[in-house]
Amino acid sequence: MPSQHSAYVSDTAPERGALRAARSWLHSDAPSRSLNGLWRFRLSPTASVAEDFAAEGFDDTGWDDIPVPSHWVLRGDGAYGRPIYTNVQFPFPIDPPHVPDENPTGDYRRHFEVPADWSEAERVVLRFDGVESLFKVWVNGDEIGSASGSRLAHEFDVTSSVRPGDNVVSVRVHQWSAASYVEDQDQWWLPGIFRDVTVIARPAGGIEDVWLRTGFDNGRGQVETEVTADAAAFPVTLRLPELGVEQVWATAADVAPLDVDGVEPWSAERPRLYDVTVSTAAESIALRVGFRTVEIRGDRFLVNGRRVVFHGMNRHETHPERGRVFDEEHAREDLARMKRFNVNAIRTSHYPPHPRLLDLADELGFWVVLECDLETHGFDKLGWVGNPSDDPAWREAYLDRIRRTVERDKNHPSIVIWSLGNEAGTGTNLAAMSAWVHARDAGRPVHYEGDHAGEYTDVYSRMYSSVLETEQIGTDGSRAPLLNCTPAQGARQRTKPFLLCEYAHAMGNGPGALDQYEALVHEHPRLHGGFIWEWRDHGILTTTPDGTPFYAYGGDFGEVVHDGNFVMDGMLLSDDVPTPSLHEYKAVVQPVRFTFDGDEVAIANLRHSADTSDLRFHWRVEHDGTLVDSGDMEVPVVAAGESARVPLPRIPVAQDAETWLTIDAVLAAETAWARDGHVIATAQLDRSTRRPVPAVRRETDWRPSDGTLALGIAEFVDGSLVRLAGRAVAGPRLELFRAPTDNDEGATQEVEESDASVAGVSNAELWRRDGLDRLTTRLLSVERSADALRTISKVSAANSALSVIVESVWSLVGGELELRVEIEPSRGWLTVWPRIGIRFDLPDGAAPVDGAEWFGLGPLESYPDSLRAARTGRFSSTIRDLSVDYARPQETGHRSHLRQLTLTSAGAGVLRIVTFPDTRGRRPGFTLSRHTPQQIAQAGHPFELPDSTTSHLIVDAAQHGLGSRACGPDVWPEFALRPEARTIRLRIAGG
Ligand code: GAL
């Protein structure tokens, strides 16, 4: 039985005691004191401990110190428990609204000073910006009240309990409460006081709240002001000095909308803000307003009359050391990074961020979908039986959450849509939230993805719909049914703007097909883009028992119930490193598009409203990746939505090398988020003269050498290659396996697009079943003719009759070694293959292979459905940097369309490889790694990879695409690698 002290943990009512109504988070000159800093702290295993700690004379000398804000599970080296990661699952029995007696409970205490002159304040308020999950507050022993809503602000009136001088505040925080049932977001459970605590003096005659609703219409701005203040607080003055506005309202009844001339609009591209103050004699509030009008017209979502395309990221608040504790500098750098990668929108998944984040979004320029702190996903398992979203007992809790969400952040021009929450099923409480928003803020539409049938929301939203399905949503003629909709409901949804609140699950290596989704946005105006899942990995920095640091995911803290590495699905690794997927994203959504046509290029400006006056255009010509000419391009200013045709520069074309023109659109001047010269958009034009693939003219030069037989730089024993250019080499052996990506391990049901996949079974599982990771070889024949060595092998796996015949022919052409490999699968292979490659193992010896220089696609890894960021050029990298440190090791490092490759050791070339296109013009790619695919597949974390004494080069005739199947569609058929015969032809020379 819960004690009298803890019964409230099962109470669905959101607030008790002296809680004040929600209001904006304002920058006021009224006095306040931050209570951030060290607090005394004690952790108890249950909620039922006595509350005597809150009494005034309580002796807390035996307690610890803990910083506020922080999460206790990230402090104390495990002494205060460990983080738990679950996606959908509840880490406690599903017994709503009850939670177990085992309920870690943190008691916090600290002293604080109230200045003597605060006695003039009308009221003293104690504000908590974020406490997970339920907390109760005492001041000087008086019980003040309690609240839940972890990522929401709560203010208590403590006027009658504080006194000038020393005061004691005590806070009890329970990890689990009824609120936990509606905070089941896919993230770490991180209890504690994790946002700011502030004590505020509210002056008599002050401004309790203010809301400046702005609009923009053809150069004219509107400000509609809502002031919450006592009658005695008037007059109220609004000043907007930059536009010469000073408006005094003598009484509340006088407050009226203002029209302002000569206004520049606010947009995510040109985030023009104006400083405003709203003052009474007692208090002045500083705001930054942006003028913009949000509107839905038919199936279009418009800001200032123009259609918005969301190139967005789902942004959680997560940091490897701080968890959800906000750090402004880090957040600003993160947002600046988004801007540098052409991101223009943020969905605050799945709760309001720290309030300062919205100031930054206003200032740097993002379209924001501001989401309420609400998710009940764990009820899905029960067929949504008992879901709070449709239970009247929870109605007030739901309304409280949306009120706190909207009221806190209503002044931000960046917020263009309110979102009710995420994955909370559907029900009347959600409809009630929507109705409340509609009544309170007619200027912004309501979003909630779970309203599939469109009963109470203004935009149609989906997550992870396939390319085909998304296209059908954008199309009117289609009768294709929409998810969970009757035909009539589907028709209703098609009358609304559509957005993908989540798509392209960026877990591990991937996603593919970003360009296919983007193409749809430009074909079907109803489709307004979407938000990648998600911006960053949620890894928590920790160490192995021997002190090796690593980024932990679910299960690494010994959780009983967890969801593994599903929390590592960002475009940024935990340590802020952008993955290749973010570079791909940047290229796919670049706001300037180039279309080459003869000796001209059409330059289209795809932005919402900004012209190209902030850009310069730079070109360069390279021959086989070597710069031969460059210059600036004269481009007229192109208005948003327009394009201009511009002559190309003179391009010197090489006869014996590839000729490529590259054009970059770069920033002409420094911005708040990037340096002058930062590349916004790029395009390449291949102007190479066609050259025939050289025919093979074999020469004879067999030499016996030291028990082996040599042909040029190659030495063989019994038909097997043993050395190249004097260095030991094993292989080439057929490699069909890649360390499965998280997408390869995905087992979604959605497979209609790729008939080689099996619903509910991952491709990785099928590969393991077929033994692709454990192939064995049987040499069928070795035949040495006067001018070549030909070997034929049969490659197959234990207990399988499937096989691949590999024929290798070594010869000498023009004094250089040539290898031709024919790869021919037997009948009967049913699955897709991860790759069709040949692997060379290069043991370290005296000069280990530790780098590569190449001419081909680069600089980063690329795959058939993720090629847009890759450009043709000459690149170099250390072997280390060729691989990406995905949180769970997996396939990485493939460079596509290789022409020339030099393997290097300490900067010096040791082996040179030239590739040839096959008869269909396809070039191989390569991977150079310190680990084999089989070794990588064994490791759960980077630190589990074994020490290596060998470098492994894989030359791939083909790789399977990436797809998004960890949570979404499989690889698109065109990029799925079905077993097929392939040829690899290489020239190999010494360094
Ligand atoms: C969605 C959910 C996200 C996240 C994602 C998978 O269904 O809204 O919170 O769980 O799937 O990573």
TrEMBL record:
Xref: Gene3D superfamilies: 2.70.98.10, Galactose-binding domain-like, Glycosidases, Immunoglobulins
Xref: InterPro entries: B-gal_small/dom_5, Bact_Beta-galactosidase, Beta-gal/glucu_dom_sf, Gal_mutarotase_sf_dom, Galactose-bd-like_sf, GH, GH-type_carb-bd, Glyco_hydro_2
Annotated GO biological process: lactose catabolic process
Positions of the Beta galactosidase small chain/ domain: 712-989
Keywords: Glycosidase, Hydrolase
Cellular-component GO terms for this entry: beta-galactosidase complex
Catalysed conversion reaction: Hydrolysis of terminal non-reducing beta-D-galactose residues in beta-D-galactosides
Coiled coil spans: none
EC number: 3.2.1.23
Recorded GO MF terms: beta-galactosidase activity; carbohydrate binding
Family from the record: Belongs to the glycosyl hydrolase 2 family.
Name this polypeptide is given: Beta-galactosidase
The encoding gene: lacZ
